[in-house]
Amino acid sequence: MIDNKIYKYLIENKEIIQEAIKLDNSKWGTAFSIEELLQVGKEASGRTYTSDFKTNPRKTYIVLYNGDPTITLELSIIGARLGLNIIFMIYDDMLATNTLLVKLMQQTMERHGTKTFVKLYTNIEKEDIRKSTKLADKIIYIGDRFEYNNIRREYNIPVIYNGYGHVDVYTDVEVSGKYEEELKEIINYAFEHDIAVDFHSGNLEKELEYIDSDVAGDTCVIFSDDENKIKLLESKVNCKRIFINEDPFREYKFKFDIDELTTE
Fold this sequence. Notes:
By secondary structure, the protein is α/β, with parallel strands linked by helices. The protein folds into two domains: 2-164, 3-Layer(aba) Sandwich (Aldehyde Dehydrogenase, Chain A, domain 1), CATH 3.40.605.10; 166-244, Rossmann fold, CATH 3.40.50. It contains ten helices and nine strands.
């Protein structure tokens, strides 16, 4: 299967990928590592798919995101396996790594005889996205809910939302000092991995109006010793993952529901 070939190519090109990562890390002050990509490739090589694209082959999806290379690799693999065209659109985030990954994917797909494509467009503007939507079936937007709602209004094609890369943190003022180290770790990890973190404090019910929306976010964290506040957040907030008084980044991975690709 093509998944195994992609994983093999990652290993064979490990040194050149590491050089690209090193270049990007020095430019952006990030702490990305080759191990994150190898993990994605390894997991993909043993994955099974239940979705059936035989009736609607070669659909094209635009991906708008922060340039996280694990997202590039994961969605490239899904596209190659399921016969989808993927167009990645970023500014210039992790440009060297993403450019190399897309080239490796293109080579692998050509050698495997896959009749689909993967492309990378950089330094994008709204007009670039608008032109590309004329060729695409859907947009996959990965990031914060506010920008998702803007994109949904801006472009006249369906948008799939994934909240990865955006985290809401509520801190009870009474315990902010108690969890100071955990908060520092969250800030440092978010900075090094280009993850947006919104911090909230004060009246929890009012803050929930900002945290929550009709669209499920990715991750919400609360630091509080008040059981009533914890129960309130757990019952009201619309997040896929909720953490109580702990660092959410210990097992933080990009996950994508491929069934959303077949939903009309």
